[in-house]
């Protein structure tokens, strides 16, 4: 949305692969779905918290948070660092995107999603309407960021993006 207020130089197109529209629902899907997704996301998030804590030890102590077992739990434990918000639900609402948020785009945005994504609820995308600048490429299969062609083994949307950019 920053681009619509103050254009970002040379930004001509935005591509997003399996982006969440409702981060609360996505977080629940991660926590209640396949355990390897939860472990993966928690590991990455905790690693970034450790880096931040190491860079700013006088400001951050995430030792209790690093024991969180779910993404919701970790998000809730982050709330003291965001005092202007009262709950993690308020935090999620800040970056929940609905159809109205994507109607006033001023550069092309292409989103790639899959109906079988176990992390991003496909129902959220049923409410989106393509417009002059928004195009949602809906695929039956692809999982979460998969979208693979087996022969040759590659991620097919890379070719689509290359063609659009060219």
Could you characterize what this model shows?
The protein is of the alpha/beta class. It starts with a helix and ends with a helix. α6 (about 125) links the parallel β2 and β3. The mean pLDDT is about 90. The protein folds into two domains: about 1-20 and about 100-165, no CATH class; about 20-95, no CATH class. Helix content is about 40%, strand content about 10%. Strands 1-2-3 form a three-stranded parallel sheet, with no helix packed on it.
Briefly say what this structure is.
With 166 residues, the protein is α/β, with parallel strands linked by helices. The chain is 39% helix and 12% strand.
Largest sheet: 3 strands, parallel
Radius of gyration based on Cα positions = 18 Å
Q: N-to-C terminal Cα separation, in Å?
A: 24 Å
* Coarse shape: globular
The fraction of residues in strands falls at 5-15%
Brief descriptors of the model:
single chain; 166 residues; alpha/beta; 2 domains; three-stranded parallel β-sheet; two-stranded antiparallel sheet; 12% strand; globular
Write the layout of secondary structure elements.
Elements: H1 2-5, E1 14-17, H2 23-32, H3 35-55, H4 71-78, H5 88-94, E2 109-114, H6 123-126, E3 134-139, E4 148-149, E5 154-155, H7 156-165
Parallel strand pairs: 1-2, 2-3
Antiparallel strand pairs: 4-5
